[in-house]
Amino acid sequence: MDTKLTLKLNEYVIEKAKHYARERNTSLSDMVESYLIHITEEQDEKSAEITPLVKSLMGVVSLPKDFDEKKAYSDYLTKKYK
Questions:
Q1: Whole-number Cα distances in Å, 78 to 70, 72, 75, 81, 82
Q2: CA 4 to CA 32: how far, in whole Å?
Q3: What domain range is 13 assigned to?
Q4: Do 28 and 21 meet the contact criterion of CB atoms below 8 Å apart?
């Protein structure tokens, strides 16, 4: 069931958003709805439960305490693209 929502926004923002929606053959309402769905699903994903498979894999790999993942990745990329 659709329900009406009234928003108070800066006129310039509204005009830019309408132009953006028109260029993409969609409505401003659909854009706002899509955005709200996106941010609420993102929040749900953060609070998602860890699956049994992932739990079973926890601790399988052990790395030295001084392991620098950024340096390791940088070294990997350097080697890959040499």
A1: 12, 10, 5, 6, 6
A2: 12
A3: 8-58
A4: yes
The answer to whether position 37 is within a domain reads yes
| Residue 13 lies inside a defined structural domain of this protein | yes
Kindly list the averaged pLDDT for each block of 10 residues, start to end, along the chain of length 82.
Answer: 91 93 92 89 67 82 88 93 90
Number of domains, the chain: 1
Q: How far is CA 82 from CA 47, 72, 76, in A?
A: 41, 15, 10
Among 49, 45, 27, 25, CA closest to 37? 45
**What was the pLDDT predicted at 63?**
84
